[in-house]
Design brief:
Helices cover 27% and strands 26% of the residues. The chain is α+β, with helices and mostly antiparallel strands.
Length: 374
């Protein structure tokens, strides 16, 4: 469903449990969504092949289940892959270094006891990963260095690791360029206040206006509604816009569909629904697929302007800053107006400067003439 890799963040079953087809086996976290994977058939869970919070590619065997037919079957084989009853490789997963599977030198045990070190945390460098006294001393030195530097280390979640990979991929592979404009939003703010007074039960946010303004701009400049692929530039006939939402541990970007065909009221309802689902961890995988552009708004956090990183599957992202009173020249006179700065990040492989300028100017026109958005 659009995922390239994921990390298991929770096992619902333990080795030895009897499992029934259709019940949840584990919770898998990808860049934009968390989903449950179901047990594919009845049987007994014999082995877990993937550790928690370690990203693995889609199609990777994750567990060994012995069916009621007494045949070992790999859960969730890749498409076209034959089911095997041979022992399954552990996929480079880190085995616990306790118990009889790891040898420990007697001197290493004594040294660990003296230094109050848990040997389960020590990586062995001897033959067959045997833990030596040198390993214990080296581990103790690293621990002492950590303690003396006065910081704590927070383990990466699967979401954070995947986000880091995707953002690094974007800045490495996509030739970003940036366009910036300033918009006078006095008329828009007045229109929003009027709408709020007329219908206080369904208030329209600034972000709702931004989403519709971007959608109408893409409809006016269809050559910007594209994404880059190795053999082609894909031009979309629908206007879908992603909306990044801050959640614990990272950012999710649900996609609003056919935004140019939605009213402000419909955009408000759908954006609120998607944001609520994102924060509750209830987004479906399909909620985060598609779109050629994202709209990232940090104005509510007091940011005047910023430049955002393009999603690797898209070609543009519009960064919205805060609306701030500033002196500007109107009719040869200096007046105070409420100015919003918008920065458009573009993929130069798919969109050239002139097309990007047309898109940003169309957005500015829609914002400064907000009745268009009605």
């Amino acid at each position: 469903m659009g995922m390239n890799d994921g990390a298991i963040v929770k096992w619902y079953k333990e080795v030895g449990d009897h499992v029934i087809a259709g019940e949840p086996l584990c919770e898998i976290e990808a860049a934009k969504v968390t989903v449950d994977m179901e047990v594919p058939f009845d049987g007994t869970l014999e082995r877990l092949l993937v550790p928690l919070d370690e990203p693995v590619p889609v199609g990777t065997p994750i567990a060994l289940i012995r069916s009621q037919r007494d045949a070992a079957i790999v859960a969730e084989p890749a498409a076209g892959q034959e089911v095997s009853t041979q022992p399954v490789v552990h996929l480079n997963a880190q085995k616990p270094q306790t118990g009889s599977s790891i040898e420990i030198e007697p001197r290493a045990r004594r040294e660990a006891k003296l230094r109050n070190i848990d040997l389960a945390s020590v990586r062995g460098t001897g033959p067959k990963r045997r833990i030596t006294v040198e390993d214990v001393i080296a581990f103790s030195g690293r621990e002492q260095q950590h303690r003396s530097s006065h910081y704590s280390e927070l383990a990466h979640s699967g979401m954070r690791r995947t986000l880091a990979h995707r953002l690094t991929q974007s800045k490495t592979e996509i030739p970003h360029f940036y366009l910036r404009t300033s918009c006078n939003v006095d008329l828009l703010l007045a229109l929003r206040s009027q709408r709020k007074a007329d219908d206080p039960e369904t208030p329209i946010s600034i972000n709702d206006f931004m989403l519709r303004a971007v959608a109408l701009a893409l409809r006016d400049v269809p050559e910007a509604n594209v994404s880059w692929h190795e053999k082609c530039v894909r031009r979309y006939e629908v206007v879908d816009v992603a909306m990044p939402v801050a959640v614990p541990g990272g950012v999710l970007a649900p996609v609003l569909r056919d935004v140019d065909c939605l009213s402000l009221k419909e955009i408000s309802a759908e954006s609120r629904r998607l944001a609520k689902c994102a924060r509750a961890g209830q987004l479906a995988a399909t909620d985060c697929q598609g779109g050629s552009i994202s709209v990232s708004n940090l104005g509510m956090y007091g940011m005047e302007e910023f430049a955002a990183i393009i999603d690797p599957l898209q070609s543009a992202v519009l960064a919205i800053g805060g609306a701030i009173p500033k002196p500007i020249v109107i009719d040869d006179a200096i007046k105070i107006a409420t100015i919003l700065t918008a920065t458009l990040s573009l993929d130069h492989r798919a969109i050239d400067g002139a097309v990007g300028a047309k898109l940003l100017n169309a957005f500015k026109r829609n914002i400064e003439n907000p009745t268009i958005l009605l």
